[in-house]
Design goal:
It is a single chain. With 213 residues, the protein is α+β, with helices and mostly antiparallel strands. It folds into two domains: 2-72; 81-198. It contains five helices and eight strands, in the order αααβαβββββαββ. Strands 1, 2, 3, 4, 5, 6, 7 and 8 form an eight-stranded mixed beta sheet that branches. The longest helix has 30 residues, at 43-72.
Length: 213
């Protein structure tokens, strides 16, 4: 009787997170109270203890879920993935390119819902040491899109090769992609620095002496 009333009061089956928390708490309270009573103690004392245990278990469950979600958001070789900031995207691509000896790139996009900039690391399984594959499609307005978001820039990172200075040998490819997205394409060397930057109006590229970013 107590358990059925309690379960209905938290909206069992509603599907919300509050229902889940309430359910864990009530079940813990009823179980703890019953065990206490059977052992000769007071139901209320056991119920309080059980409620705290229920809430603790639910909190730990949520922490584990958050960890799983974070791990799932790490970009993968064949699907890529989103990063939380430009700096995170930069660090990931720079380190990954040097660890696998292939170019790795990310797109800067405008979120179609919020208007904010978002950063997507592109899949790299088909990349080479000197070329990154771009996963965009042309919209009806002529701009390039990815996942429904307009692409405004691409940054690609070459792996470090001892004794070799990046020459921007694929400058034509970088420039034409800048024309496609009507935005900016930046070539980073093995140290993470931008050494060439292309826009639709700049074919030669700008040699930029800046600190790693």
């Amino acid at each position: 009787m107590i358990s059925s009333v309690a379960l209905s009061s938290v909206g069992l089956g509603s599907g919300g997170r509050s229902s889940s928390v309430g359910l864990y708490t009530v079940v813990g309270a009823v179980s703890g109270g019953t065990a206490e009573a059977l052992g000769g103690g007071k139901f209320a004392n056991g119920a309080v203890t059980g409620a705290f245990v229920g809430m603790f278990n639910e909190a730990m469950h949520q922490v584990q879920q958050n960890v799983r979600n974070t791990l799932q958001n790490i970009p993968s070789e064949k699907t890529g993935g989103y990063m939380g900031s430009k700096q995170e995207a930069h660090t990931f691509c720079f380190e990954k390119a040097n660890s696998i000896n292939k170019e790795v790139s990310y797109l800067t996009k405008i979120d179609s819902e919020t208007g904010d900039k978002v950063y997507f690391v592109q899949p790299w399984h088909n990349n080479t040491r000197t070329k990154s594959i771009n996963y965009t499609n042309k919209g009806e307005d002529g701009y390039r899109y990815h996942d429904g978001d307009r692409v405004i820039a691409q940054d690609h990172y070459a792996p470090y090769v001892p004794g070799q200075i990046s020459s921007g040998g694929v400058a034509g490819y970088d420039y034409f992609f800048a024309v496609k997205i009507r935005g900016t394409v930046r070539h980073h060397d093995g140290g993470g620095k931008v050494i060439f930057e292309y826009t639709p109006t700049n074919y030669i590229g700008l040699r930029i002496e800046i600190e790693e970013r």
